[in-house]
Each structure stands twice: as C-alpha cells, then as structure tokens.
Description:
166 residues; alpha/beta; UDP N-Acetylglucosamine Acyltransferase, domain 1; 2 domains; five-stranded parallel β-sheet; 15 strands; globular
Amino acid sequence: MKSEKNIYLSQNxxxxxxxxxxxxxxxxxxxxxxxxxxxxxxxxxxKKIKSxxxxxxxxxxxxxxxxxxxxxxxxxLRIWHGNIIINGDAILGNNCNLHGNNCIGEKNGKSPIxxxxxxxxxxxxxxxxxxxxxxxxxxxxxxxxxxFNEEGVIIAGCPAKIIKKI
Length: 166
C-alpha cells in the first residue's frame, strides 16, 4: 500500500493534504485501491467485522465514483480516470495502468488474466477466458476477446489485433 501512496499522493500537486481537502481524483483512486486491498486482506484472514466495514466503504466508493475494483491486482495499480469495472475473478499483474472507462469482465464464468506492465487505454473492454502477456500496450476503445501471449507488442482494434512490436 505504500507504493500506491507514492504513486497517487506525491505527484502533480505536491502535498497529499491538498489532495485530501479538495477530493482530488488521485486521492479518490488511492482510497479505492487501498480499501479494496484491506477488504481482501481481512477476508483472507477471516476477520468478519473488518471485512464487512471495508466492504461497506468499497461499495460506497463504487457507487459514488464508478470504481468497482473486485478483482485481484498486483502492486502499483495506477488508475488515471474513473468508470472502471474489474470483475471479482480477474487478475491484474504489477504496474498496470488503467486509463478510464475500462471493463475487465467475465464471459461464461471465466475472467481475464493480465500480466505485468500492461497499459490499458481509455474505453478498452477485456472480456472472457483470456490471458494478456507482460509489457503490452492496449489501444483506446479496443475490444480484447482473445489471448495475446507475445510480450512487448501494441494491440488495438475491435476485435484487437497486434499492431506493432515495441
């Protein structure tokens, strides 16, 4: 959680107090990610009262700011804009960027597995039983409904296909 604090609260406007007072989006995204992590931790350790409290806060943030973060994600998840839905069974690796208006959802009960250092563009939908390799950039408004196992590529389109190798 310290890594998220450095990502969200130390950039752009300087002091985190300014962001807390003004309800800056970075502070809201930071709170959403940390509350989700605390909820998952309390649930794993069977701390029922804490998990209920964190579930309440997570649902409150989800309804107020359209940030439904129910999946598992690694360190340094960076959210740039709101309106994000991550299905409960989806898995995101470390250092992923979500640029907003994203849906990472399930199809037929199966959810995506996304690797490390993946940059997901604005308006992207990733759905189904697929896997995304490490170091991939997904273009804006793309529909990813098949697996991409080649690392270091740019994918885009509806449905997505490899555009360029990095």
